[in-house]
Design brief:
Layout: E1 11-13, H1 22-29, E2 35-37, E3 47-50, H2 55-62, H3 66-78, E4 84-85, E5 96-97, E6 119-120, E7 124-129, E8 132-137, E9 140-144, E10 147-150, H4 156-166, E11 171-177, H5 181-188, H6 197-209, E12 214-217, E13 223-225, E14 230-243, E15 246-247, E16 253-254, E17 257-269, E18 274-276, H7 283-290, H8 294-302, E19 306-312, E20 321-327, H9 333-344, E21 350-354, H10 363-373, E22 380-387, E23 400-408
Parallel strand pairs: 1-2, 3-18, 4-12, 20-21, 21-23
Antiparallel strand pairs: 2-3, 5-17, 6-9, 7-8, 7-11, 9-10, 10-17, 11-14, 12-13, 14-17, 15-16, 19-20, 22-23
Length: about 425
């Protein structure tokens, strides 16, 4: 089940579309459908896809409900598996090799007019240093034909790079574009400890596809998903350069920073390849950020009450706000759920707790639950001086924020018949 195998429901766009804001503009004007662009003006022979990884499309593609997805991802965290290694001659990603590395000849797009330039936003970086492997998302500005400038957020890969630089060493990497969606979801996960995300992806492959995750080796020794559409390999250098501005998940412009430069030594791709061109700040971006956080929030809330489901909201940018569905068994379950949810995802700023009859993916029903079941002075928790998210432009100068939780559940001792909707 490669990336391209999940595009059967896509609208095929045959009219010429530019990599300079063309895909972004077409998607926005048509309400963000699943699209494959067959005719990219500047780069013939290459295609691009957008809007695959929304919550509904993703779950439909892999054949599970959103509720099942959360539990399946949590299961994979507890049951990592070993990927299967295949020879490059058996790997689809090796169908074509660029004789001279030139990333400008693949359809890396320039989406928002405010962005610095062309960005690879949906690509994942697989890095290895001192026997430790990491796979994670980091946006990359296309500086020239064989260099990108990568925004390394303060997670495991940045720690790996910092350690290497202290030793005067580079870090070998492979940048993978358009592996299958299960790999993308595993790459979007974040853990307190250093866990090999490819082993999580392997577990999901076996459970969802009943097939092993196939990896193949790049010339610099990095193992990558064999069916990926594109793979570039090289190293994180000792140099930095300007990165940004960039429209981030909140729809606001992120800052210009000095960030590490990646130098590429090689590039391979499939026949008639399809580049995954994620549009920053839109639904696909929010899904990749938010869905992998749902299992950790559910796990945290489940330790204090019965948690049924978690939804990272679109208005909360898939990161800063969530709705949590619980089955209430004690009078203080709502308040305990608020505290646990905020602790379970420390970047979250707002959480709403609802009963089991509420569709948490429907903002109208969530608001209905609030206006009919929530009392502001009784059912609100506000926490001051909390660690904030760097994605929140309203955070304080020292990075702190206030956080809020709303208990929109029916009071435990109330007659529930007066609270139930007939609609």
């Amino acid at each position: 089940m490669a990336f391209r195998d999940h595009l059967g429901a896509a609208d095929i766009i045959s009219q010429p579309v530019s990599i300079i804001q063309g895909m972004w503009d077409f998607s926005r004007k048509n309400n963000h459908p699943l699209l494959v662009f067959d005719n990219i003006s500047e780069i013939p022979g290459h295609r691009a896809a957008v809007n695959l990884l929304t919550r509904e499309r993703l779950c439909a593609a892999i054949g599970i409900t959103p509720e099942e997805y959360i539990d399946t991802l949590a299961w994979a965290m507890e049951n990592p598996a070993t990927p299967q290694i295949v020879d490059p001659s058996q790997a689809e990603c090796y169908e074509n090799t660029q004789e001279e590395v030139d990333l400008q000849k693949i359809p890396i797009p320039h989406h928002w007019p405010q962005d610095r330039g062309r960005y690879s936003s949906a690509s994942v970086i697989i890095a290895q240093y001192n026997g430790i492997r990491n796979m994670s998302f980091h946006r990359q500005f296309l500086r020239d034909k064989n260099h990108t400038v990568v925004r390394l957020v303060p997670r495991h890969l940045r720690t790996m790079m910092t350690t290497a630089r202290e030793n005067g060493e580079t870090v070998d990497v492979a940048v993978v574009n358009a592996p299958d969606p299960v790999v993308l979801l595993a790459a979007a996960m974040s853990f307190d400890e250093n866990i090999d995300e490819l082993t999580i992806a392997a577990a999901l492959h076996e459970k969802l596809y009943n097939k092993p995750l196939r990896l193949t080796k790049m010339p610099n020794g990095i193992d990558v998903p064999a069916s990926a559409e594109y793979v570039f390999w090289g190293k994180i250098t000792l140099d930095n350069d300007d990165e940004g501005p960039y429209v981030d998940i909140t729809g606001t412009l992120d800052d210009v920073r000095q960030e590490p430069v990646i130098e590429f030594d090689g590039l391979v791709h499939r026949n008639n390849p399809i580049f995954h061109a994620l549009i920053p700040g839109e639904a696909e971006h929010k899904t990749l950020m938010g869905l992998p956080r749902s299992p950790t929030i559910k796990d945290a809330v489940s330790k204090v009450c019965e948690c049924l489901d978690v939804h990272m909201t679109e208005g909360g940018c898939g990161w800063l706000a969530a709705v949590v569905k619980i089955r209430k068994k004690h009078h203080d379950d709502g308040r305990k759920a608020i505290e646990a949810a905020l602790a379970g995802h420390k970047s979250m700023k707002m959480v709403t707790i609802v009963d089991e009859d509420i569709d948490i993916a429907d903002p109208v029903r969530v608001e209905w639950a609030m206006v009919t079941r929530w009392q502001p002075d009784r059912d609100t928790i506000i926490l001051s001086n909390q660690k904030g998210s760097s994605l929140d432009p309203s955070r304080n100068a020292d990075g702190t924020t206030a956080k809020v939780g709303f208990d929109a559940t029916i009071a435990f001792d109330a007659d529930k018949s007066g609270f139930m909707s007939v609609q």
